[in-house]
Design goal:
25% of the residues lie in helices and 36% in strands. The protein is of the alpha+beta class. The protein has a three-stranded antiparallel beta sheet. A three-stranded antiparallel beta sheet has the order 4-5-6, with no helix packed on it. The two termini are 23 Å apart.
């Protein structure tokens, strides 16, 4: 079984982040539709671009504010959130 991790995560523009995975796959994910549909105020706060841009890569996973917002790696790898 192949274990996939995120090797790099780079902010591109608006709510888009480019992910480079350990299997050499690259995906650009637009988080805006997800954030616009969110009803939880703790999630909607990431519509503020300065909050959104403040993500980090830890142990091969992308997260915001110590896992306040995070996504399954495989979903990101498949281009869906």
């Amino acid at each position: 079984m192949l274990v996939i991790s995120i090797a790099e995560a780079n902010y591109r523009e608006d709510y888009k982040i480019e992910f480079k995975f350990s299997d050499q796959t690259t995906k650009v994910i637009d988080f805006e539709p997800f954030l616009q549909k969110a009803r939880n105020p703790m999630t909607r706060k990431f519509l503020n671009l300065s909050e959104f841009k403040n993500f980090n890569l830890e142990n091969g996973e992308v997260n915001w504010n110590d896992y306040e917002l995070c996504f399954p790696i495989w979903d990101l790898h498949e281009g869906r959130i």
